[in-house]
Amino acid sequence: MIKRFVITIGDSRVGKSTSARLLLDLYLKQKLTPRVYYHGHRYKLAEYKNYFDINQLGFSRGDSDSLLIDLERGDTIDVVLTDMPGQNFVEFKSFEKDVSLLKNLEATGYRVTFLHPISHRRECVDHYLQEVIEAIGDRADYIIVKNEYFTKDFFHYDHSETKTKVTALEGIEVNLKNLNQNLYEMIEDTNSTYTFALEANSTLNQLQKGVLFYWVTDFHSLVSSNVVAAEYLGLTNALALFEKMDGII
């Protein structure tokens, strides 16, 4: 059985870490055991350190060797998630070529999924996403997250050659609904997981918790009920989870 090595990537402030955190909450709900890493120096998954062992992943041959040994020994690992700033992709590309990372991951039983949020900005598509597609091609799978926090009209992506390439590579698109900016910043200020922000002792009021609940549940239901998305993200028991959430709604 192929396991998944999910890498969030894309332009800055486009929703990479938000998408990663939503996935970590979903992995928690599904009682999966993920191995979590981050690239760069901005540690934006700190809220989950009480649930998962989170480590920095560098771009050296030693880092690659340690990672592969870790994965080979990790019989209980269900999925791997790495949060990578878009500006690190040039370094990652050289690193991947130097150590044949994707090929070695495949030999270890993992296939990479790039989870790539986009906004209304042309740069998201014509620079960041295009660069990933051209460098990696069919050696990985792709999920494009249309982040409606910015817009509901993704004109540059929908009319781009890059979208055509994503489709040809059997990549898929999912939508992340808009969350009010003030509420989003309030949640950030709690320094907690999205799940904890919904609990009784959270500083959010009931209305805010209701809005957050539907935002989280919508994304979780969307990726869990989509067979391809569930496969690409390393989810298990997706249909059962979706039916449970659907019953709540």
Structure summarized in a few sentences:
By secondary structure, this protein is an alpha/beta fold.
Please give a structural write-up:
With 249 residues, this protein is α/β, with parallel strands linked by helices. The chain has one domain: P-loop containing nucleotide triphosphate hydrolases (Rossmann fold, 3-Layer(aba) Sandwich). It is built from twelve helices and seven strands. The protein has helices at 16-29, 61-73, 89-99, 101-107, 122-136, 155-158, 161-168, 181-189, 194-197, 206-225, 227-232, 238-248, and strands at 3-8, 34-38, 54-56, 79-83, 110-118, 141-147, 172-176. A seven-stranded parallel β-sheet has the order 3-2-4-1-5-6-7, sandwiched between helices. Helix 10 (206-225) packs antiparallel against helix 12. It is globular and about 50 Å long.
Secondary structure blueprint with pairings:
Layout: E1 3-8, H1 16-29, E2 34-38, E3 54-56, H2 61-73, E4 79-83, H3 89-99, H4 101-107, E5 110-118, H5 122-136, E6 141-147, H6 155-158, H7 161-168, E7 172-176, H8 181-189, H9 194-197, H10 206-225, H11 227-232, H12 238-248
Parallel strand pairs: 1-4, 1-5, 2-3, 2-4, 5-6, 6-7
Helix pairs in contact: 10-12
